[in-house]
């Protein structure tokens, strides 16, 4: 069997969201382009799905694997998936056996199960053999063995038909148009370069000002590297902040949180915003 | 004799106008005997491109010192080398991380000139290569064929900065005086690293080599890799690499900083060109020897796909790098859809450009589609070379120039189809612009 795998990432460093591709074939693989019509899509980080359609390009009847503690039913409904949905609480398993929220171990098991035709014990042995070759200490190898075994038990699966009106089709490339010269905010060479994907996992920015405490100082506006603070000019008070468009470009750098004298910006655990339809605050 | 006595013992040497030359200062047999075998038998593993290159250089007994400076996307090369060397603290091999890229180049000059029978590898990318430029140009002329400068292609220093791979950095350095060989795929990267010094250090070539592969698309993509046993690799290299006197300035010495008259300069460049052109003859011979020895394709001017016995065809494609692999799947589908015959070549030897071989291969095509991935203000680096190669034909094919994948952008099957459609228009006799830029299945 031949495989080809690679990550696709931007200049962002640790903590950034990435997309990765895997081809599996009985024949030598020559194609080198990105996989745009995947048979299987894996979502490693639920938070990333706020700004990226992880199911993009998967035809109806495909397989969706999610690293989540939610059920396949919940996920199918939430992400409008038609096909086979498999879930595994990888972060929880990682935390339990490896002391970190490393969902990779469980995702590896789940994807191998989704591909099919592979004996689970062989899949586990292959992984552990790779660790042994890297001279990983025995205690860690044993912890991985237990995490892999627990993952096999924790995989849940079901077939669903929750079609998305858009059919998870990729947006058609519309050309670059006129590129204005200036700050990074407007010089986006690709619609795919959504910097919100670089935000730390599990958190989202929230702006709340029920008491209209914003002083109009505009520190947040001038410090935001992405230029996504929404505001309204006020003759007496200055530039009053009305919200933040976080769905695409907020990478949760925290500049606004630090500079706001009224503490109107804060990080919210992703769990609290999972069900929001509109990603803005 | 103690080590101290050995070090202070007068060493036989030759006095030259450029300084003293110590021909036997390094005991090559002792260096060879100290090599720690990495693989004693053929093995198959999963590796990305940087790892494949690192393994190959670690397996060479002549590679003892690795100078480096980390820069994306080549960093993993030096990391892998460092990690493997750290596993054997008593070994002979050493890694030297220097404070800047130009320092790496300076170091390579000194070390490679001092130890002409050893191989000095480093890996760099884009800005790193640019910082090395002044020294690498001197290196190119020096006759120090024992320099192996691995370029992990990344869009060259430009605005806006981009860390993904297109070959604009290597093509911006076409005239540095290096032999430039492009690779695609992990196996070809590994195999090329083994063969490249055989070409550069051949006594009739003595020219540093710059093998390269696409950053991210090949450096960070993992696939199957077959590694050969160290001893087999050594035997292969030893057939091609032998100690020999250097060409170069002043009595066979490599002397940087010497200022000469224009007359001498011109004469020197003529000799340098001749040495480089000799590589055109030797490269296929080394490739054939490699194929006989290891059973895989060796060095060649270019890879080929879709060619049949009859050389006449409708569209010939000239490209390079891993995206050519996508043509290998998209091309047959286009043939089926249009009834046109399509074949392609992926360039491997970039400098010197193998014009004769390219001309022979493309002569029977009606249209030649050249796909450039490096930014160029004209029709493209590759296009200019191909047009030049075809210019001696009585009835040269029509050349259609395309750009795709600049900055390492994805070149999808739809993009290949769109480019082939552009070539089909030319095949039908329609006028075509000097070049078109393609992305995600459309001309921009």
What does this structure look like?
The complex is a heterodimer of chains A (281) and B (444). With 281 residues, chain A is of the alpha/beta class. Chain A has 2 domains: 36-161, Pyruvate-ferredoxin oxidoreductase, PFOR, domain III (Pyruvate-ferredoxin Oxidoreductase, domain 3); 195-273, Alpha-Beta Plaits (2-Layer Sandwich). Chain A has 7 helices and 10 strands. In chain A, helix 1 (72-79) links the parallel strand 4 (62-67) and strand 5 (82-88). The longest helix of chain A has 17 residues, at 138-154. The relative contact order of chain A is 0.12. Residues 180-191 and 277-281 of chain A have low confidence and may be disordered. Chain B is of the alpha/beta class and 444 residues long. Chain B folds into 2 domains: 14-294, 3-Layer(aba) Sandwich (Rossmann fold), CATH 3.40.50.970; 302-443, Rossmann fold, CATH 3.40.50.920. Chain B is built from 15 helices and 18 strands. In chain B, the strands form 5 sheets. Chain B has a 7-stranded mixed beta sheet with strand order 11-13-12-15-16-17-18, with helices on both faces. A 5-stranded mixed beta sheet of chain B has the order 6-7-9-8-14, with helices on both faces. Chain B starts with a helix and ends with a strand. The interface between A and B is medium-sized, with 22 and 30 residues. Strand 1 of chain A pairs antiparallel with strand 10 of chain B, so a sheet runs across the interface.
């Amino acid at each position: 069997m031949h495989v080809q795998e690679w990550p696709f990432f931007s200049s962002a460093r640790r903590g950034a969201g990435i997309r990765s591709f895997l081809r599996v074939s009985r024949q030598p693989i020559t194609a080198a382009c990105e996989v745009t019509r995947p048979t299987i899509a894996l979502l490693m980080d639920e938070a990333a799905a706020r700004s990226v359609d992880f199911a993009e390009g998967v035809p109806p009847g495909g397989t969706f694997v999610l690293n989540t503690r939610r059920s396949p039913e919940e996920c199918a409904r939430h992400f409008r998936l038609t096909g086979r949905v498999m879930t595994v609480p990888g972060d929880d398993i990682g935390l339990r056996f490896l002391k970190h929220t490393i969902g990779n171990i469980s995702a590896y098991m789940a994807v191998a199960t989704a591909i099919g035709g592979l004996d689970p014990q062989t899949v586990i042995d292959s992984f552990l053999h790779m660790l042994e070759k890297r001279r990983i200490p025995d205690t860690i190898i044993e912890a991985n063995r237990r995490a892999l075994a627990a993952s096999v038990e924790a995989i849940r699966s079901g077939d669903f038909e929750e079609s998305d009106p858009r059919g998870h089709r990729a947006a058609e490339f519309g050309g670059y148009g006129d590129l204005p010269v200036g700050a990074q905010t407007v010089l986006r060479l690709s619609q795919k370069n959504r910097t919100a994907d670089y935000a730390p996992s599990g958190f989202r920015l929230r702006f709340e000002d029920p008491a209209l405490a914003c002083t109009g100082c505009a520190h947040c506006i001038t410090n935001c590297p992405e230029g996504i603070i929404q505001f309204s000019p006020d003759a007496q008070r200055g530039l009053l902040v009305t919200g933040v468009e976080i769905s695409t470009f907020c990478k949760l750098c925290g500049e606004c949180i630090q500079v706001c004298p009224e503490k109107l910006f804060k990080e919210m655990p992703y769990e609290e915003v999972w069900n929001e339809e509109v990603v803005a605050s | 004799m103690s080590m101290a006595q050995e070090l202070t013992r007068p060493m036989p040497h030759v006095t030259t106008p450029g300084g003293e030359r110590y021909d036997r200062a390094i005991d090559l047999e002792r260096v060879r005997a100290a090599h720690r075998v990495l693989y004693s038998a053929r093995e198959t593993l999963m590796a990305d491109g940087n790892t494949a290159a690192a393994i190959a250089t670690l397996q060479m007994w002549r590679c003892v010192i690795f100078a480096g400076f980390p820069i994306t996307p080549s960093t993993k090369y030096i990391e892998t080398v460092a990690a493997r060397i750290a596993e054997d603290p008593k070994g002979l091999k050493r890694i030297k991380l220097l404070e800047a890229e130009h320092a790496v180049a300076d170091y390579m000059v000194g070390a490679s000139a001092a130890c002409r029978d050893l191989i000095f590898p480093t890996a760099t990318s884009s800005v790193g290569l640019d910082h090395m430029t002044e020294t690498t140009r001197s290196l190119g002329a020096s006759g120090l064929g024992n320099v192996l400068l691995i370029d992990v292609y990344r869009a060259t220093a430009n605005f806006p900065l981009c860390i993904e791979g297109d070959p604009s950095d290597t093509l911006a350095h076409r005239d540095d005086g290096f032999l430039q060989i492009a690779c695609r795929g992990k196996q070809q990267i590994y195999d090329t690293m083994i063969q490249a010094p055989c070409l550069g250090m051949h006594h009739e070539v003595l020219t540093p080599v710059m093998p390269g592969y696409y950053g991210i698309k090949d450096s960070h993509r993992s696939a199957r890799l077959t590694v050969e046993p160290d001893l087999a690799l050594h035997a292969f290299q030893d057939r091609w690499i032998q100690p020999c006197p250097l060409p170069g300035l002043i009595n066979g010495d490599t002397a940087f900083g010497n200022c000469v008259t224009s007359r001498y300069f011109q004469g020197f460049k003529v000799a340098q060109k001749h040495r480089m052109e000799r590589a055109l003859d030797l490269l296929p011979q080394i490739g054939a020897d490699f194929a006989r020895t290891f059973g895989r394709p060796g060095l060649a001017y270019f890879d080929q796909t879709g060619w049949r016995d009859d050389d006449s065809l409708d569209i010939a494609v000239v490209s390079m790098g891993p995206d050519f692999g996508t043509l290998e799947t998209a091309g047959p589908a286009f043939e089926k859809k249009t009834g046109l015959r399509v074949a392609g070549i992926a360039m491997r030897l970039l400098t010197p450009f193998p014009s004769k071989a390219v001309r022979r291969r493309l002569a029977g095509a009606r249209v030649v589609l050249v796909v450039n991935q490096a930014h160029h203000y004209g029709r493209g680096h590759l296009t200019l070379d191909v047009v030049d190669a075809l210019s001696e034909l009585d009835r040269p094919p029509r050349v259609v120039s395309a750009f795709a994948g600049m900055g390492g952008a994805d070149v999808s099957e739809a993009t290949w189809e769109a480019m082939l459609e552009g070539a089909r228009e030319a095949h039908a006799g329609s006028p075509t612009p000097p070049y078109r830029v393609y992305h995600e299945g459309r001309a921009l």
